[in-house]
Write a structure and sequence with these properties.
six-stranded mixed β-sheet, 20 strands, 37% helix, globular, D-Amino Acid Oxidase, Chain A, domain 2, 2 domains, FAD/NAD(P)-binding domain, alpha/beta, eight-stranded mixed β-sheet
């Protein structure tokens, strides 16, 4: 009987373990931090809810409104009710990763996967990395601070252990560039929290990120406020978070930071994702999209696709699949999603390159055709071809937006107004307290970019 170790208990690992366990394959799933709260916006597309049979209980908020905020503070509202017609069916799910991951991981365990609260510390890969594989790990299931040293021999490994993957190192998968995500979870006064009931905000500008965006995403009883940037700019990450805070401070007034998080995010797939009988999925493989930074759906999908290939090639665990068998998963993945990743990379390079382009990006998001194309792609992972007149209209709109954007790009950045309080009221509140805790923000702080102008 085939023996498989899934290392990493996030969405990619949990989905892989679920498929393997359903097929009756001996499966171990390793996760050191069973209460892990990964720093992540936590947005999931609607198609993921049905495709992965996710219950309402893991979804904190059903966001039907998105507000895009340009460098000059132009605000564009995107309503799913307007895009699709008034309905309760379309939404973006906002989740806390510790809740969603635990649900998916426990479901795999209920189906027969052996859930190990353990940290894999070494992987012996056998001759030419072909296995069998001996894992050395610390087992923390007893609850002791020091884990018990154990070993396990398996025939195949699924590496779902994130950007700093130990499996990737063992298989010499090659390096990749990473972006840095930084996030603060902030509890807000009731009035402000009500404003974010079903609304997410996305801020663009060099003050919040030179190559990505900042966000305010609603959770169960708080908002996630964060930003991301590429590895070359990682030294700026805290000043960029200050930029998000400053721009949104009148909407985050009197908030209190309850958690600070940071995490690396891959910028592109690794050079090698299958070596021997070891396969990478999720962040370990590099499956995060440019432009949107979406990774949860693609992590879960890659774990499932990899496991389905293992089940088929092994004849439900009767034989050990070959390296070429596992590589069929890569062929299918690249065929299905390769173009999507490339297009989003082009869009990021085009629209996140400078503030003029960001102004144009936000202006274009005010177009209903653009909104529908965007949300068809995000919510349902489908792309519908535009009609010739729509394409012509979009081309002229893009050119016009880019030209106007250059003129609108600001010399400095200012906070957006409160959406629930008059300016006098919110200014008095700010005199008492902006945001308690979290990163240290100097008095009269300015973003990195503004301070250099």
């Amino acid at each position: 009987m085939l023996r498989v170790a899934v290392i990493g208990g996030g969405p990619s690992g949990a989905c892989a373990a679920e498929i393997l366990a359903k097929a009756g394959i001996q499966t171990w799933i390793f996760e050191r931090k069973l209460d892990n709260a990964k720093p992540c916006g936590g947005a999931i597309p609607l198609c993921m809810v049905a495709e992965f049979d996710l219950p309402d209980s893991i979804i904190d908020r059903k966001v039907r409104n998105m507000r895009m905020i340009s460098p000059s503070n132009r605000e564009v509202d995107i309503s799913l009710d307007k895009v699709y017609g008034k309905t309760e069916n379309e939404y973006i799910g906002m989740c806390r990763r510790e809740v969603m991951d635990a649900f998916m991981r426990n479901r795999a365990a209920e189906l027969g996967a052996k859930l190990v609260n353990g940290l894999v510390t070494n992987i012996e890969t056998g001759n030419n990395r072909q296995g069998p594989y001996t894992l050395t790990y610390s087992d923390y299931s007893s609850g002791e601070a020091t884990g018990e040293a154990k070993t396990l021999e398996v025939d195949l490994i699924v590496g779902a252990d994130g950007a700093n993957s130990r499996v990737a190192k063992a298989m010499d998968a090659g390096d990749y560039n990473v972006a840095i995500a930084f996030q603060e979870r902030i509890k807000l006064p009731e009035k402000e929290m009500t404003y974010y009931e079903d609304l997410a905000e996305m801020y663009v500008g060099t003050d919040v990120s030179p190559d990505f965006y900042g966000w305010v995403f609603p959770k169960y009883d708080h908002v996630a406020v964060g930003t991301g940037t590429m590895q070359k700019n990682q030294a700026l990450i805290k000043s960029l978070q200050v930029g998000v805070r400053e721009r949104a401070k009148k909407r985050l007034v009197n908030g209190e930071v309850i958690k600070v998080e940071a995490h690396p995010i891959p910028e592109h797939p690794r050079p090698r994702r299958v070596v021997g009988r070891m396969a990478l999925v999720g962040d370990a493989a590099g499956y995060v999209t440019k432009s949107s930074g979406e990774g949860i759906y693609f992590a879960a999908k890659s774990g499932r696709m990899c496991a389905e290939e293992i089940v088929q090639a092994s004849q439900n665990g009767k034989i050990v699949p070959s390296e070429n068998d596992l590589k069929r998963y890569l062929t299918k993945w690249d065929k299905k999603y390769g173009a999507t990743y490339k297009v989003l990379e082009i869009l990021q390079n085009l629209f996140y390159s400078n503030d003029g382009a960001r102004e144009a990006f936000v202006e274009m998001c005010d177009d209903l055709d653009v909104q529908r194309l965007t949300f068809d792609s995000y919510l349902y992972k489908t792309v519908v071809a535009m009609k010739p007149l729509q394409q012509l209209k979009l081309t002229f709109k893009t050119i016009g937006s880019v030209l106007r954007g250059r003129a609108l790009a600001p010399d400095k950045y200012t906070p957006v107004p409160s959406a629930v309080r008059e300016d006098d009221e919110v200014n008095k509140m700010l005199e008492v307290c902006t945001i308690k805790g979290g990163i240290k923000v100097p008095a009269n702080s300015k973003s990195q970019t503004e301070s250099n102008t």
